[in-house]
Amino acid sequence: MNLWLQLEQAGLDDSRPLAEVLEAMPWNADGLIAAIAQQHDSGEVLMLAWMNRAALEETLASGQVCYWSRSRQQLWRKGETSGHRQRLVEARLDCDGDAILLLVEQQGPACHTGRPSCFYNAIRDARVCVISVPQ
After folding, report:
1. Do residues 38 and 48 touch, judged by C-beta distance below 8 A?
2. Is 15 domain-assigned?
3. Quick one: which of 100, 99, 95, 101 has its CA closest to 5?
4. How far apart are CA 108 and CA 110, in angstroms?
5. 14 is in an annotated binding site
6. Is 118 annotated as a binding residue?
7. Residue 95 annotated as binding?
8. Is 94 labelled a binding residue?
9. 66 belongs to an annotated ligand binding site
10. Cα within 13 Å of Cα(92), Cβ side
11. pLDDT for 27-44, tens place per residue?
12. What pLDDT was estimated at residue 91?
C-alpha cells in the first residue's frame, strides 16, 4: 500500500517519518511542488509559489519560508531583500502530497506589487476587476 493511501486510512495522530514522506512526494519533472501561503490567523490566501526539496527542508529547519524561484533558478528566501518575510507557523500536505499549504505570519505585503495578497484580480461578470491596491 502506498504511503498516501496509508495516511488516508490512518487514524488521528498517526504519523510517518518526514524523510519517508519527502521521498514519497510526487515532485514534478523539475523537482518542484506547488506551495500555497495562507495567513495563519485570518485564513487569507496570500500567494502561490514553488518549492523544491531543499526549499522545503530549509523552511522546516529555519521557520522562515524559502521557495524556489523558477525565473532565477535559485532558492528564494521570501523577504530577503524587501523585508516582507513569512514566518512558518505550520506546514501541511494535501491528501496525495502534491501541494503544500504553508500557514504563515506575513510581515508586510505578500505580493511583489505591494498588495497584501497576490490574488487581487477578481473575475466578476465576465470581467477581471482589481480588488486591492498596494499598501
Report:
1. no
2. no
3. 95
4. 6
5. no
6. yes
7. yes
8. yes
9. no
10. 11
11. 999 999 999 999 999 999
12. 98
**Is residue 13 situated within a structural domain?**
no
Q: Which residues contact 27 (CB under 8 A, 6 or more apart)?
A: 33, 52, 53
Alpha-carbon separation of residue 9 from 18, 25, 106 (angstroms): 18, 17, 34
13 known ligand binder: no
Query: Domain span at residue 35?
Result: 26-130
**Residues 79, 110, 58, 94: what is their CA dihedral angle, to the nearest 10 degrees?**
180
User: 57 is written with which cell numbers?
Assistant: 527542508
**9 inside domain:** no
C-alpha–C-alpha distance, residues 130 and 135, integer Å? 14
The verdict on pTM exceeding 0.90 is yes
Question: Is residue 5 domain-resident?
Answer: no
pLDDT digits (tens, 9 = 90+) for 77-112: 999 989 999 999 999 999 999 999 999 999 999 999
The whole-angstrom separation of Cα 5 and Cα 21 is 12
Q: Report how far residue 98's alpha carbon sits from residue 117's, in angstroms, rounded to the nearest whole number.
A: 23
Helix (H) or strand (E) holding 106: strand 99-106
Number of folded domains that form the chain: 1
Task: List the CATH number of the domain containing 49.
Answer: 3.10.20.810
